[in-house]
Amino acid sequence: MSSASESTRDSPVDKGGSSFDKGGSSIVGRGKRDGNRLFQEWYQELGTAAERNEHSAYVFVMGSLTEIMRSFGIHTVFPEINGLQQAVRRVSGDDIGLAEDYGFSADVCGYLKADVGLQLRGGEHPMGKIPPPSLSVHTNACNTYIKWAEIWERMYKVPIFTLDIPGTRAAGRQTWPGQVDFENDRKYVAGQINEVIHLCEQITDKKLDLDKLREAMTHTNTMSRKWKRLIELNKSSPAVYNAMTDGTVFLGVMNGYRGRPEGAEYFTDLVEEMEYKAANGIGTAFEEKYRLAFVGIPCYPIFRGFSEMFTEWGGSFVGSSYLWYASGGANLGYQYDLDHPLESLAEGLLVTVRESMDSMFFSDRSLIEMVEPYGIDGVVYHSVKSCRTVSTGLADNRRAVMEATDVATLFMESDHMDKRVVSEAQLKNRVDAFFEGLAVRSQRRISNAAAPGQSLRARGGHR
Amino acid sequence: MRMPRLLDDYESRSADEAIRMCRELVEDPDFPTVQRWREAGGKVVGHFQVYFPEEIAHAAGMLPFKVRGAPVEARQAGAHFGSYLCSILKTSLELALSGRVTLDLFVSHPICDSARNLAAVWGRNFEYPCEILYLPQNANSVHAATYLRGEYARLTREIEKIAGHRITEDQLRASLGVFNENRRLLRELGEIKRETPWLLPADEAYSLLAVGAMIPREEHNELLAWVLPKIRRGTALPQDRMRLVLTGGFCEQPPLDLLHTIAQFSYVVDDDLLIGLRWITEDIPVGADPLADLAESYLERSSCSPVQHDLRRPKEKMLVDQIKATNAGAAIIIAAKMCDPGLDEVVAYTKALDDEGIPYFVSEFEERMTNFDSLQIQLETFIENLLFT
Ligand code: SF4
Ligand code: SF4
């Protein structure tokens, strides 16, 4: 989730051979430009929040409750996004070192440690000064969120609130409104939302303004609708954006501007841009040869190089489970009922945060369902050392996907934050071998005289 | 169906021999008591660490079995996981994949994300139901107990399906009674450790506790009722050893030899090993709604662990209180390798102990470690320094 311009190629080229008009040329590339600008502006706002004596809540991408925070005028700080920025801007190593000197193990979440280092240094971040928290509100979508918030609780003596969202109990067993188990979960979430509101009222000495809440929810509705559409638009061939690199920019805006008019406008424009590209056969900055799905967290300490390992072979990430879970489940396009904002917020949080968790724990099913409509040739699993939430199930997930489909798969291990665990040469060897395998399959398909345009779903994986 | 007794005869043996029998069962990766139960036609609910409301499975006539890994190599399970994981996760799955234990239901909990993922992995590899029991992670919400009562009702329906019959409220009440008795006996075991630790070394106390997770509670109650008075009548004399509190054994279990190593130099007067079996610290009052009683007790009459955030019970304060209450001179803090919650907690523990001026010894461990030489030397030095100063 970042303004990742320094890490990705930016100028899109026309792969479909179609010429586009002046209007089109101003549309294409807009999403990336605006995304980077918005991202800078957001950090500038945060940078002066403390001076203006404004409150900040430390929140997380899976269930940020931004709508409530906005209605109280509380800024939202996303330590995961800060951490990602520390990695792509290559300062995470120092902060991780500081946290380890403080006592944290080399084996725990790198985002957490990058933040501890940052806090110990007084919040000086490459994107601007990070204000200290007035409170933390976090879900249980990742258990590290809870352990992390406990650190701020001790460090800053601020209230922390765990908004407990019961997840799916077993694969394919989601419950829905009207079912007794769903209603039990919903009541629990609704009750906790009231408790969060009460906490915010105490901190800000203000009453909840329902109109402001409704307004924020309206913008989130637009953003979620557009997010869902954005994900669908990459069914086009060539893909209209790179789900791993461009997707990271989109995720930054999705989280930072959730519930804000700028966010709604951004995604409206972005969908317009991607629809235009789809209609005109415009792809990304390289020629797409293989259509891939990405599962895991990207390798941020070498983000550009990591991305190029794939793009130089023509590997295009058309989908990524990251866009499901790190958007807080916005891929569902959930729409709040503005006539019943609090009830709907409870239902929406339950359903979307649950979707985030499903996208990490049970994503094999969604990946299998994605293969045909997105024309997936290969699935790339990037398991990272310091995030067990996302990584624990990946090897087994891969087995399930290989059993159910004919796509090629690649399983790699490194880290999303800690450069010490990243062996670039080793990763590259694995990726090269994977593409060589894909090329052989492609050749075989051609010699078997399969229909042109058919995707290359070869049975078996590649280790 | 009348189920056979699962333990061999111990009444005709000495207390030491009975404890040795327990130790062998606890270390046996084939879990013979569970196999005996199945051979007699019984059904088994396997529940992963840390806490599970075993009373519900018990009321259905099923054997609640704590899945807590084993000292085995993850031959088959290795292919289902990446490299950077705690061992208990891999060896637990290995027990199932290798056919050492067969379950009718597997339940995991949101104690950490490895454990939640485990339920998904298990579910992809076995036909029987595998699920996550969402114990509340907001223990401070006034809505948590009502929610948990509903979640227990859901679990009850699941278990009823597998058992093939309804669970009545009277059956539940009876099970709460059996487990209350078990809790009382385990408190007595804790008292012996605290007050006369020379009569019961840490590894022996652990064996007596852990065997309860693989036999029906009635049998565990009988065993404890038989052995505890014998332990109290033991003739070992107190020695000049450091009294220690051991913490960090809430999930992955250290090998018994590690406990034995510690017990050679010190008296472990309290610990959090298999804390889930002792999570509820008092008798559960049995009233009109046993599921509500069970749920309320989970939140209100309970212990603490690094995997439960509770504003009322900051974990580092609980540790300091525990050390003071047991008159211990130091803490041994252990953390399973690659265990996020355990490793994160070490930082808070050590800062709090520093503030209090309480000495501590920190070590990472793995359930399958076999060499304790260097640990032994370090521990010996630590304790000698303390005794000397
Ligand atoms: S463990 Fe993973 S999901 Fe959780 S905060 Fe760290 S990187 Fe994010
Ligand atoms: S040892 Fe730690 S990481 Fe492993 S399952 Fe237990 S709590 Fe989770």
Please supply descriptive tags for the structure shown above.
heterodimer; A: 463 residues; alpha/beta; four-stranded parallel sheet; 10 strands; 52% helix; disordered N terminus; disordered C terminus; B: 389 residues; 14 helices; globular; binds iron/sulfur cluster
List strands and helices in order, with pairings.
The complex is a heterodimer of chains A (463) and B (389).
Chain A: H1 22-27, H2 30-49, E1 56-58, H3 66-71, E2 75-77, H4 79-88, H5 92-102, H6 110-120, E3 124-125, E4 128-129, E5 135-139, H7 143-156, E6 160-163, H8 180-204, H9 210-233, H10 245-256, H11 261-279, E7 290-296, H12 303-311, E8 315-320, H13 322-325, H14 341-361, H15 363-374, E9 378-384, H16 388-391, H17 394-404, E10 408-414, H18 424-447
Parallel strand pairs in A: 1-2, 1-5, 5-6, 7-8, 7-9, 9-10
Antiparallel strand pairs in A: 3-4
Chain B: H1 15-27, H2 32-39, E1 44-48, H3 54-59, E2 63-67, H4 87-97, E3 105-108, H5 113-125, E4 130-132, H6 144-163, H7 169-195, H8 202-210, H9 217-232, E5 242-247, H10 256-265, E6 266-271, H11 290-300, H12 315-325, E7 330-336, H13 340-356, E8 360-365, H14 373-388
Parallel strand pairs in B: 1-2, 1-3, 3-4, 5-6, 5-7, 7-8
Bound molecules: iron/sulfur cluster (2 copies).
From the spread of the alpha carbons, the general shape of chain A counts as globular
Q: Give me the number of helical elements of chain A.
A: 18
Please state how the strands of the largest beta sheet of chain B are arranged side by side: 2-1-3-4
Number of strands of chain B: 8
Major sheet strand order of chain A = 2-1-5-6
Strand-pairing-aware structural class of chain B: alpha/beta
The value of Rg of chain B in angstroms is: 20 Å
How many distinct folded domains of chain A? 1
**Approximately how much beta-strand content do the residues of chain B carry?**
5-15%
Helix segment tally of chain B: 14
Morphology call of chain B: globular
Ligand types: iron/sulfur cluster
Largest sheet of chain A: 4 strands, parallel
Uncertain regions spanning at least 5 consecutive residues of chain B: none
How far the N terminus sits from the C terminus of chain B, by CA atoms, comes to 61 Å
Give the termini separation of chain A. 28 Å
Mean pLDDT of chain B: 96
| Chain pair with largest interface | A-B, 60 and 58 residues
Order of helices and strands of chain B: HHEHEHEHEHHHHEHEHHEHEH
Task: Name the helicity range of chain A.
Answer: 40-55%
